[in-house]
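Reagents: none. Just compute today. Glycerol kinase.
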Amino acid sequence: MRRFVAAIDQGTTSSRCIVFDRSGRIAGLAQREHEQLFPRPGWVEHDAETIWRNTEFVIGAALEDAGASAADIAAAGITNQRETTLVWDRTTGAPIHPAIVWQDTRTAALCEDLAGTVGTSRYADRTGLPLSTYFSGPKLRWILDNVEGARARAEAGDLCFGTMDSWILWKLTGHHLTDVTNASRTMLMNLETLQWDSQICAEFQVPVSMLPQIRSSSEVYAEISTGPLSGVPVAGILGDQQAATFGQACLSPGEAKNTYGTGNFMLLNTGTTPVFSKHGLLTTVCYRLGDQPAVYALEGSIAVTGSLVQWLRDNLGIVDSAAAIEPLARSVDDNGGTYIVPAFSGLFAPRWRPDARGVITGLTRFVTKAHLARAVLEATAFQTREVIDAMRADAEAENLGLELTTLKVDGGMVANELLMQFQADILDVPVVRPVITETTALGAAYAAGLAVGYWSGTDDIRANWAEDKVWRPSMPDDERERLYAEWNKAVERTYGWAD
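Predicted 3D structure written out:
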């Protein structure tokens, strides 16, 4: 009897492998960070070979931590930072350029050109996405246009494109595949057909031959042919935010979760019919289990939340560790009138302002580093409020019957209890943290385990979910609205900084 399922979680700042048991509890875990490369302002890159070496390491280390071998693993799942774009040689497997990370803004002018006279919504009716530097398609076009010889090699069939799930799967199995959730983040997949849209690919000047085959999120793709998991089937792939939604058991229309990581990502399950937002949200595939109909979601994507804490630590040196921000922020009663709007890559949902850049407003001689620390945390909660308001507006317009009564949360920042309380206060709804907060990896494990019968169905996922702690709102209404109004004034100061 195989005792466990493994999940490979290739994230923006680190790669992890987590081994889960049947109850969804962690049996073994390993993690290794990789460097964030900033070759120019607005450019963000990763070394894909380093990420692969780290992935190899954490797989072995997690198995060792669990006291397990490949013989104990029923299946492996993959989850990943989604829009990060890589192109590699089909024969040698060598990347032709560093991976271009989802936060990268080098394609701003290209996105304007692609928008033409129609505007950023040119492809939204087919892809659910606005034209933005965020997504993979423009990044892929940039590589083909700017790496010497890339276009000729791509047109000759010699190159593979993939998001990081495809790269890890290729290195593990030699197969060139992706799942519908990751494909839906490229701007190249049609949401209705769940296949590459040949017209969009032609207009992006992307050869379809270099794109991976699109499969469901839960099926046996191939067996691992190398390393400590050799012989184990890879049977689940989900983009990280869809994986967290699945791991949080948001399996019915109207259920939502918010992940607090490098950025923040809120997904609302809308069922088997895609809902196209009129209020700045993305329409995306939430998951697809085998040959069942795809389930869709509305998503609010926020570029900078946890990475703002990293900026405070690494760029300004105000704290020595991410964990140190909470006691520093607690040492003052409020933000001292200061707001930090972290538009480092422009503003994502629901504003979609690529011309925005980060600002600190309301500075006086009274403000200390503690007030700045508090403003950093509050920025995450304020941005989440913006997304919630957009979701409510879309739900009302589409008669979805959504009434947000609680918010399920996960990700690294949910350990910060000051942030969680402020989040409940500024939303005026309870915030619920589950026992297992590693829901991204857990969702990938669930997808893989369902495909091989390790779990019998989604009822097992619901049964495994358990509440750890609830934060309830305690802020007076007038204070909540005053703070939010001041936040909106601060956001407006970010507009128009980048040409």
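The chain has 16 helices and 23 strands.
Action item: order primers for follow-up constructs.
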